[in-house]
Amino acid sequence: MERKYEFSWDLLGDVKEGRPNLGPMVRTEIYRLMQFCFRDVLETNYGSETADKLFYESGMLAGKQFYQNAMNEAENFNDFIKSLQSILADKAIGILRLETSDFEQGKYVLSISEDLDCSGLPELDYQICVYDEGFIAGLLESFTGKKFTVKEVDCWCTGDRTCRFVAKICKE
Length: 172
Ligand SMILES: [Zn+2]
Description:
By secondary structure, the protein is α+β, with helices and mostly antiparallel strands. Helices cover 44% and strands 17% of the residues. The chain contains five helices and four strands; from the N terminus they run H-H-H-H-E-E-H-E-E. The protein is globular and about 45 Å long. Bound molecules: zinc ion. The site of zinc ion has 9 residues, from loops.
């Protein structure tokens, strides 16, 4: 397929030059406005399951691109998590914690507090951070070279005050 919209980091532009007065920040609710409108339109056009799949895949692409363009190389898993923690806090995406790690099984539990996508939302009866699931999967895959599936198990929206994600290496 001839592509019109293939992602490249350059598309994010030179914000310093482009927004000399307003600067790089935008309010969280404006970011959410775009995300929730996308979700609505995708669901209306393609159904809930496909909307979730597209969000997950977009998150995954973003995670891979973020890893390539925004992160420094890490020597080992702990360094990787540490540098991820600091950049996610620095960019006000969320406060990351690695809760448990099982290297043998390739299973990790991570939590993100004050999550950009969902903290403060009304309570719903489902976890909503599908984009984050993909984002984490993309980051983990980029660092380890292995495919991951990531599932959010607790969310602000399900009454928890943090988002908790279970990440597992895909067994071939
Ligand atoms: Zn969440």
